[in-house]
Amino acid sequence: MRVPTLTDPRGADFKAYKRIRQSETIVALERRAIEALRALGIMMTDTCIIYQTIQPPTFGEHVAYGDTGSTIYANSVLGARSNFEGGPAALSAALTGRVPRYGFHLEERRRGSTLFRLEDRPRCLSDWGAVGGIVGRSMTSYWEVPVIAGVSAPVRSDELKHFGAALASFGSTPLFHMVGITPEARDLATAFDGTPPQAHPIGRADIDAFYASYGVEGEGLDVVVFAAPQMSLFEMEQLAGLLDGKRVHGKTTVLIATSPEVKAASDRMGLTETIETSGAIVLEGVCFYQMHAREIGEANGWRTLMTNSAKLVNIIGGYGYQPTLRPMERCIACAVAGKVLP
Amino acid sequence: MRGGRKGAPLSERIIRGHPASGTPITGSALVAQDNFSARYDLDRIKGVFSRPSHILHGQSYVGRILVLEAAKGGVATAWMLREMAAREMAPLALLFNFANPIMAQGAAFAGIPVMDRFEEDITRAVRSGERLTVEPGNGIVRIHGPA
Question: Which of B36, B80, B102 to mutate to test binding with chain A, by most A CBs within 10 Å of its CB?
Answer without folding.
Answer: B102
